[in-house]
Amino acid sequence: MEELVIDCTEKPETILFQVNYQETRLGKVTWSLDAFALWQSPKQHTNQKSDGYIIRKELADKILPPANILRVLQKNPHCIPKEWENKAGSYPWRIFALGTTFHLNGVVLVEYLTKKDGEWTLGHWPLSFEMNSKDFSLISR
User: Fold this and answer.
1) Residue 94 near residue 116, CB atoms below 8 Å
2) Closest alpha carbon to 9 in 55, 98, 17, 23
3) Phi and psi dihedrals of 40, rounded to 5?
């Protein structure tokens, strides 16, 4: 597998949104499953929902990777682990990058990666909305 080096200090390019916050403590990283993990809150593990602000508070002691990582993975789908493809069965599940927040008309958004119709795509989700048992947050180990 090719080595992907991701600059986590670069603000993601965006036309519609204003980047509100960008976690930069990771600097430049090499993509690897040893460096990153998927995380869920205790509520999500028991099929309950939790809003994004609460999840970010629960992750306060973790370094949250920025949206750049999801964007690089989306452009290099061969680097996405196979086990991520079937995490939630047939339901389209999402991997959130909580280390970057965007603003659009006063709404705080975060970016996610999901597989839809056989393709990895990016989307945006209001941080105030609930995340369910099919959603995961990408964290730095």
Assistant:
1) no
2) 23
3) -135, 150
Sign of CA dihedral 84, 85, 87, 93: positive
Residue 91 is predicted with a pLDDT of 58
Best CA proximity match to 85, nearest among 112, 57, 114, 108: 114
Q: What's phi and psi for 59, nearest 5 deg? A: -100, 15
Angle 118-124-125 from CA coordinates, rounded to 5°: 110
Distance between CA atoms of residues 126 and 5, nearest Å: 28
Q: What is the pLDDT of residues 42-72, one digit of tens each?
A: 998 888 888 899 999 999 999 999 999 999 9
- Convert the pLDDT of each residue in 74-133 to its tens digit: 999 999 888 787 665 555 689 999 999 998 888 999 999 998 888 899 999 999 999 988
Instruction: Give the whole-angstrom CA distance, residue 127 versus residue 108.
Output: 6
